[in-house]
Design goal:
Number of helices: 2
Number of domains: 1
Largest sheet: 8 strands, antiparallel
Order of helices and strands: HEEEEEEEEEHEEEEE
Strand content: 35-45%
Oligomer: single chain
Length: about 220
Amino acid sequence: MFLRVILLLTLITRLAQAQIPAGFTPLFNGRNLQGWHTSRTSHQGTTGNFYVGNGAITLKQQPYGQGGVLLTDQKYRNFELYLEVKLDSFCNGGIFLRSTESGQAYQIELAIPGGLGDLLGEQLRISQGAKATNVEKVWKNGWNAFRIRMEGAVPRITLWINDEEMYSVAQPKNDAIAGATEGLIGLQAHWSSTYSPAAKAFSMAGSWKPGAAHRFRNVAIKRLD
């Protein structure tokens, strides 16, 4: 029985890797979160429920209201990132590029409804954002393929969704903390703590539906330097 399970897991991994574009190296083995870790310094939360289910990285809140950021162990400078994404509605998350350990990064927004595919900053004021205005034309129910190219000390960021280019934006300057030119890849589950009148805290009460998840598979990278 144990041998059958091992063979099945091996087959699942091989099938997943077969869908990764040529020239890309897997960042996710399809079985566990080896090569990844949860940020322990992110304001999004540090106790998120991040696990592998049905061959996909799955992000949920835990307890409700507390999200977090799942980060690669390695840093990357110039790269193309490929990953397939499946999003539950009424959840806010993102793909972080050149992230710090605490989750300061250029971000591709993941939100339905919301700014799906838009380029913005997470705890980072970026010079030039972008809107994925054509995303509704190519978006599918279920899994969708994202390819993101980031290159240059002053970066240009290009996004394709399901092989359709959404935008290619050159930043006028390097917006990263201390001018960093490399960082971690991150997957974010947004916090959704409720507003506290006494503390005058910022309300994100509607940013994550209870029990919902963001899922990622066939995560792979191609270094460009």
